[in-house]
Design a protein that fits this description.
single chain
């Protein structure tokens, strides 16, 4: 029988151990953050939070309906902060990005813009071979124009 006609024994599917999950590099991390901010910006502009929910981790989807996300982002939406401006500046980390669980990555920082900066605290979970949003907090921050007094 020709070799090409032989069936190979099926190989078991092996998941890589958590220790070799790829930790996002600087560029990938920035893209994750920018993508998240863009998704929130689009949701705030359209009033439709389905896409933000659908691109997130399963746990996020289970815990948040599009209507609940609309409620969560009401304050930010009412301030009419143009989140798309954050796509023009690099994120500044206030705490070093880090794994907080074997499959959850946390990143905290700010997009330094004037007059209103955007603070972020984001959690990404390793799911289906990539990092997906599992927790989010975006806060407008008023920038001070005076130097701190001593």
């Amino acid at each position: 029988m020709p070799v090409s006609a032989q069936q190979a024994a099926p190989q078991p599917s092996v998941q890589p151990p958590p220790s070799i999950r790829p930790t996002p590099g600087q560029l990938e991390l920035s893209k994750l953050i920018w993508s998240t901010v863009a998704a929130v910006d689009h949701a705030n502009r359209s009033g439709n939070y389905s896409v933000l929910r659908d691109i997130s981790a399963q746990g996020f989807q289970i815990n948040n309906t599009p209507a609940q996300l609309g409620q969560i982002f009401t304050g930010l939406r009412n301030l009419q902060v143009d989140l798309s401006n954050a796509l023009l500046v690099p994120p500044t980390y206030t705490v070093a990005p880090r794994l907080v669980q074997e499959d959850v990555f946390r990143v905290q920082g700010v997009f330094q813009m004037r007059p209103i900066s955007i603070g972020f605290d984001l959690y990404y979970q390793w799911e289906q071979g990539r990092w997906k949003l599992v927790g989010i907090d975006l806060q407008p921050l008023q920038m001070t124009t005076e130097a701190p007094s001593r």
